[in-house]
Amino acid sequence: MTDPLPIKPFMQQLDNTIQLPGSKSITNRALILAALAEGETRLEGALFSRDTRIMLQALTVLGFECTADQTAATITIKGQGGRIPNSTAELHVGNAGTAARFLTAFLALQAGGTYTLDGDPAMRDRPMSGLLDALVALNAAEFEFHGMPGHFPFTLKAKGYNGGTATVDASASSQILSALLLAAPAGSADVKIASPGVRPAYVAITLKMREAFGAAPATSDAEGNYSLKALHYKAPSTGIYSIEPDISAASYFLALTLLQGGQLTIPTLSPEPLQGDARFAEVLAHHGLRVDAESNQWIANCAAPEAIALGHREIDFNLFSDTFLTYAAIAPLLSGSVRICGIGHTRHQETDRIAGMANELSKLGQLVKEEDDALTISTKPNELRARAMKARNAGQLIEIDTYEDHRFAMSFGILGSFDLIGDGKPWLAIKNPECCGKTFPGFFAALGQLRG
């Protein structure tokens, strides 16, 4: 692990363009769909990060022909029409939730296959039982656990999808439902899945992407029931699937534009993106950020960053919760107070994100009330400056712990980019900045290029 990374503040307004990496969520879904499909698919604009490399490596170990070109941001996969070439394999999913859940459901297709899966220590604590229980209920797989029941590591003995009905507890992560929506219809018979109360944003991405690979449109009824027809996925007619840029990553640069002022252009983002995190732009619009998304790019601008401070507000981040950390990290500069709710599920992600954010904001002198599903921040901008000055006078910087969670590193990287003390010198440092490799390996380099 390297030394903490000092964040050099910006000294001028923005007038830049930034090309964002592809979405992790979309890249990993597309990798699974391309492997399931008949024919060859080239993914364009693909993300190359730890999580997507884990998925790509797993598919290679399973016998799929994969060709990757990081410079061109392309991955080509020869699909096997619902068959997995290798019937035995040992796979390691790191701390990649999408890889863990999508691969587990995917492997159940190969009747007679035996696969051993494990992950990082943090992944062993993350919820999997909702998916595993559903696979058992569908008689698609059985499991032998080598540690805590319902968690990694385990051996999966695949039986294939042969129809049936299951009620799926995906309350801990919508990825559990998405994993089944991707893999189960590739079996031999229709499947019915009941999954009430699931956050819809990422499920909507899954359903829309299935259509690009030949699936009929699918929706749930009012009770959250899906009726999935058995199908044979096919590569897109052009042989190409384009990956949308990562809007979770865009949240950091939208927040930067709000704080610094000026204008930032984000190319190849449509007015109606797949990703629900686009809603974050509405949160910042409350503070004066304007986003023009009419053409095939977003142009964000903030004419008066000095006027962003407003009073108390409450925001439900349930449908775009990956961005709550972005907002919470810059909250000390916004004045007043904010209650961020709808985020209880984030306690079970890369880390307990509510507790971690409460710890770091308290370190910055902010008053924080932590609830099961919410975080209330009473901002103290003067105390933030006082603590930064105290550290500076001691020859130190305020150091942010990142909990091996990329979103802590990037969110507080934006806070540290603000010239809090007014001399253009760093006042904040990020521990373990390499954790950004999960979704955005070049984040701090991109931030440096914008700084100039």
Task: Outline the structure in words.
By secondary structure, the protein is of the alpha/beta class. The protein has 2 domains: 5-21 and 247-451, Enolpyruvate transferase domain (UDP-n-acetylglucosamine1-carboxyvinyl-transferase, Chain); 24-229, Enolpyruvate transferase domain (UDP-n-acetylglucosamine1-carboxyvinyl-transferase, Chain, Alpha-beta prism). The protein is 32% helix and 22% strand. The chain contains 14 helices and 22 strands. The protein has helices spanning 24-36, 50-61, 97-107, 121-125, 129-137, 175-183, 200-212, 247-260, 280-285, 324-330, 353-363, 381-393, 406-416, 443-451, and strands at 5-6, 14-17, 38-44, 65-69, 74-80, 88-92, 114-118, 141-145, 154-158, 164-167, 191-194, 225-228, 240-242, 262-267, 290-292, 297-302, 313-316, 337-341, 367-370, 374-378, 398-400, 428-430. It has a 4-stranded mixed sheet with strand order 2-14-16-15. It has a 4-stranded mixed sheet with strand order 4-5-3-13, covered by helices on one side. It has a 4-stranded mixed sheet with strand order 6-7-9-8. Helix 10 links the parallel strand 17 (313-316) and strand 18 (337-341). Helix 3 runs parallel beside helix 6 (175-183) and helix 6 packs parallel to helix 7. The radius of gyration is 22 Å and the shape is globular. The model has no long low-confidence stretch (mean pLDDT 95).
